[in-house]
Amino acid sequence: MRTFVYVDGFNLYYGTLKGSPYKWLDLLALFQRLLQPRHRILAIKFFTARVSVTPDDPSKPQRQDTYLRALQLYRPEVEVYFGHFLSHNVRLPLAAPTTRQRTAEVIRTEEKASDVNLAVHLLNDSWLNAFDCAVVVTNDSDIAEAMRLVKQHHRKLIGLATPGNRHPSRQLTAHADFSLRIRNKTVLQRSQLPDPIPGTTIHKPATW
Fold first, then answer.
1. Are 161 and 34 in contact (CB under 8 A)?
2. What is the pLDDT of residues 12-22, one digit of tens each?
């Protein structure tokens, strides 16, 4: 069965990988373990955004770039598509207001375009009849309408892979033929890229 996997990179990171030792993740190996043998994974589309330097973590962009280069060199099935971050100041109410202060100004950073890019690729690949099954890796209910249209107009099989221990979105499961979780530590541990990447000098970052 021709299978495409669509990965919301930040959903995967914050749902499963943040704070874990499994960030050097081999996406193809992971989904070969999670999916049944009948799935022939032709493409893994990874949707993310370039991270920026922060005062407490100046090497964050370098680590991200190292990982993405390693992943694409080792796994030609992986295609990376970039959205962007948008930061702005907003004033929000305090959870515990005082008589002197009821609000605080904070910096809000939002990832833009990745969910839209994922939805567009899912629909476009369906129209092109590029796959028999699409596996969507997210818990973002904004993708639900794209899944519904693929089911209604193209009669494709759709799987939902939810990162971590969060309960899967009901809006998403309503349009999924099967669902699975990405949280098994043994599977994650066995689905790591080699270090170094064969034929290169690319190593897993020493601190991550």
1. yes
2. 999 999 999 99
